[in-house]
Write a structure and sequence with these properties.
five-stranded mixed beta sheet; 6 helices; 38% helix
Length: 155
């Protein structure tokens, strides 16, 4: 087989347009929510793609927060799992306590997703109040006290 036949096969494949994001149905749906902030819509779309294509979350949908004029995402981590509200936010954008309160008042667990200019995504779980951390898992020993006791015995 020659290189010419390989080129013919490659041209038969459908080329992806440069502005495919603008043509994506979910991106268009987000634009129809009329939040007025194209950067936050783009950020929400990046988070949507991460949740659906990378993390494989279920039932991912976009909703408008009229109080915040932002696009929020609602999704389930697994089938049958509780729904979460995800607040996509460009990393340089400020976030107020009032904004967090509006999202928490929706009654669903909240994830804040900070999106950097290089499309890096960082998720942070937000709660209503303080949550005690889970105890560490593993065979841990308190070596500090034992070492201190050994030092005293050596003196």
């Amino acid at each position: 087989m020659s290189g010419a036949s390989d080129g013919a096969e490659g041209s038969a494949e459908k080329a992806v347009p440069a502005n495919w994001i603008l043509q994506h149905p979910t991106y268009q749906q987000m634009q129809q929510l009329q939040v007025g902030d194209s950067e936050q819509i783009y950020t929400a779309f990046l988070v949507y793609m991460d949740l659906t294509e990378v993390r494989r979350w279920k039932e991912v949908s976009c909703v408008k927060s009229p109080e915040l004029q932002m696009v929020l995402l609602e999704a389930r981590e697994k089938d049958g799992a509780p729904a979460h509200t995800v607040l996509p936010l460009p990393v340089h954008r400020r976030l107020s306590h009032r904004s967090v309160r509006h999202v928490l008042d929706r009654g669903l667990p909240m994830l804040l997703c900070a999106v950097a200019s290089d499309s890096t995504l960082v998720y942070q779980r937000m709660t209503d109040g303080l949550v005690t951390p889970d105890p560490p898992v593993g065979p841990f020993e308190d070596l500090g006290r034992r070492q201190h006791r050994k030092r005293r015995q050596q003196r």
